[in-house]
Specification:
Strand order of the largest sheet: 1-6-2-3-12-13
Strand content: 35-45%
Number of helices: 8
Radius of gyration: 20 Å
Largest sheet: 6 strands, mixed
Shape: globular
Structural class: alpha+beta
Number of strands: 28
Helix content: 10-25%
Length: about 400
């Protein structure tokens, strides 16, 4: 039997019916009769338990995983109004699928990563690839995040060599003010990291579609504590960023949240710009009293040299990136797109939806995309949390 994959979506407002419809459509489109795995995502306006009940009523006993998402993308649809849902269904005798999960992510991301890695290592002795889905929200009142950096470190310390991997920090709303929900078979869970593994006869190709370019010289971080940057070049961070933006930029300091992005060049300092060498870090919030930046991730440290990054999503660049990864895959089965929620048109300030170019290039490949809080991909051999990126993964046979 060949491997079969189908994707489907729903915009029904009834949560149970939405779960039924998105899975049923995916089964029909993929001609899948007995699915092994179902990946599902739903918007913030749905009741997650009722939605999952609907999913399982249509999933025919398959393993189920996924969670909530700010928005979804499929071959035919893109939306983030809150009632969207989408499913991908898989059936194969060539590829084996597995689901591993570890809770207590909100207590210690590093430990959760290590424990999850041990579970995977004990069950997956051969070659495999994986998709990671972790709960981005440590606390929604006030908004606090689970960090991908220590999670990645814990995983990498155990899984040697580290497998091909892509991942997403799941979120419910773009400002992290709502709790995030995850799905594991018939249970609604949270504060977990989930690994979906693929082994057997398969290929797993990942590419990063960046959206930022340097717009400044290198600046040195001179006082950093965890995710908080207090000083840049021995001056208050907010004052330095204010000057770097130039006169008449029109922003208040509070506007820097979800707008200012700093880039860390992991390549050589004065080489020609290569976006594949950059880990970009988005500002989550500001502390006006202390004139500090609060970042999405805590990996920037005192002594790091960073650049102010300019957001620039070029459709020609997106198109070329899609052409390049599709050419790598002899028999593409499924395209999974993890897109930063900030790149959606209402937040990017752009005139177009860059994900529509991904849709177009996907063509007839079964396609499912989600809008994420953080994206994970390998850069220079190491798993890195990313901001303001799109991560494309193509599963092939």
């Amino acid at each position: 039997m060949e491997t079969k994959v189908g994707t489907g979506y729903s915009v029904k407002t009834n949560s149970f019916e939405s779960g039924v419809e998105c899975v049923s459509r995916a089964l029909q489109k993929g001609s899948v009769t007995k699915p092994d795995l179902v990946m599902v995502f739903c918007g913030r306006k749905h009741n997650p338990k009722e939605f999952l009940d609907g999913v399982n009523s249509a999933a025919k006993g398959a393993m189920v995983t996924g969670g909530t998402s700010f928005g979804i993308i499929t071959n035919e649809f893109l939306g983030y109004e809150g009632y969207e849902s989408a499913a991908a269904v898989f059936q194969s005798d060539q590829i084996k699928f597995g689901i591993f999960l570890q809770g207590d992510l909100d207590k210690d991301e590093y430990s959760a990563g290590k424990i999850l890695a041990e579970k995977i290592k004990n069950k997956m002795p051969g070659e495999y690839s994986m998709i990671l889905l972790y709960d981005s929200v440590k606390s929604n009142v006030p908004p606090r995040l689970n960090f991908g950096t220590p999670l990645s470190k814990g995983l990498e310390e155990v899984l040697i060599p580290f497998p091909n991997c892509a991942g997403a920090g799941l979120l419910n709303d773009a400002l992290f003010t709502m709790p995030c929900y995850q799905f594991h078979n018939d249970k609604v869970i949270g504060k977990n990291v989930i690994a979906i593994t693929f082994s057997g006869r398969h290929s797993f190709n990942t590419s990063i579609i960046h959206g930022c370019k340097p717009s400044s010289s290198y600046k040195t971080l001179t006082k950093v504590e965890g995710p908080v940057i207090y000083e840049i070049d021995n001056r208050p961070a907010l004052e330095v960023i204010d000057e770097m933006l130039g006169e008449n930029h029109g922003l208040n300091w509070k506007d820097f949240a979800f707008y200012i992005t700093l880039g860390l060049n992991l390549g050589k300092k004065f080489e020609e710009f290569d976006d594949n060498n950059y880990a970009n870090r988005l500002v989550l919030a500001v502390d006006e009293e202390k004139k500090a930046l609060i970042m999405f991730e805590p990996d920037l440290k005192t002594g790091d040299e960073v650049q102010l990054m300019r957001r620039s999503v070029d459709l020609d660049y997106v198109s070329a990136g899609m052409d390049e990864i599709i050419k790598r895959v002899e028999k593409p089965l499924f395209l999974f797109y993890i897109d930063c929620a900030g790149r959606a048109k209402p937040f990017s300030g752009g005139l177009f939806e860059e994900a529509e170019e991904v849709q177009k290039k996907a063509g007839g490949i079964p396609f499912l995309g989600i809008y994420s809080g953080v994206e994970l991909a390998k850069i220079r051999g190491h798993l890195q949390p990313l901001d303001w990126t799109g991560v494309v993964t193509i599963l092939g046979e």
